[in-house]
Amino acid sequence: MTKRLPQAASLLEQMNAALAQSKVADDRQFVTALARGLTLLAAFEHHEQLSHQQLCQLTQLPKATVTRLTYTLISLGFLRTTIHGQYQLGSSAVRLSAQAWSRHDVVAFAEPLLRQFATENEVSVNLATEIEGEMRYLACCRSPARLSVNLQVGSAVPIAQTAIGRAFYAVSSPTRQAVIDSNLQANLPVDKFQQAQIALTQASRYYETHGYTLSDGDFSIDILAVAVGVFDVTTGHYAYSLNASVPRANWQAEEYEAMIVPKLQVLAERVGRGVQ
Prior knowledge:
By secondary structure, the chain is of the alpha+beta class. The protein is built from 10 helices and 8 strands. The strands form 2 sheets. A 6-stranded antiparallel β-sheet has the order 5-4-3-8-7-6, with helices on both faces. It has a two-stranded antiparallel sheet with strand order 1-2. A hairpin with a 5-residue loop joins strand 1 and strand 2 (87-89). The chain is elongated and about 70 Å long. It starts with 10 loop residues before the first helix and ends with a helix.
């Protein structure tokens, strides 16, 4: 009989245990109010959005305490409310997480692979993830060819207008897609949001059939790019997307796709596995 390994405790479970231990130990150096606020944030480890009631249930904190904590965290930008009255992580939490992502093991592992790929194929290649309705670049390796747009780590590009954004949307779960839609709706005029929805729906269908997305001058008139999703085996979901771009003047889209997409898909698999 195979012995089942114990599951690692969630962040929320770890923090609740620390709260309980501090109470038992009567630790006067332990700031309970701060710990409760961080516990509230930890509740979002496995959830994109949570209601007030769900926060109370998950954290086991009184309703009035959760009300005060959410108010404070919203005021500081660590939480935000959606148009449906749900809570989700806010811009302050996102800025910290983006900084952490840039030092994440997966990103550090990916960077030499991206550099090699860019050199061997004479393309620019980038790794990104979605943050608050935009694609945030985590690793960038430029092509020897001069591009009209040169992005750096931390740069943000629109989801619906870029291959890397469309690929991320296409591979995301319906729940993640709904969150992205909500973010876009909150930040775009009605006509632009409708255009974005159409573009993302079409891109998702294209990805389902072809296994990649294409931007032929959509984001920048001078750039031709393809992108694929990256499945992170450590988390069990699509956490990133990869693009490879070249000057449009140098390539026909069909020839470029045939040349680069199979190689980019192999690169995405290697990055997601975290194995050389």
